[in-house]
Design brief:
59 residues, mainly alpha, two-stranded antiparallel ribbon, elongated
Amino acid sequence: MRQVRPQFQAALQRISSSIGRLFPVGTRVSQPQGGFVLWVELPQQIDGYVLAQQALTHH
């Protein structure tokens, strides 16, 4: 685990940065303490289901 922890941390930073660039304005990203999970909150006017369907159609 000690060897892969830095790799996971770097991956989380890349993903968080990509979300900041590519997701709708007003999207919030946080990383809960003690894990390798990101919590993403979309702006209220964005339907997460519709966004996921659009993402799937664009691969």
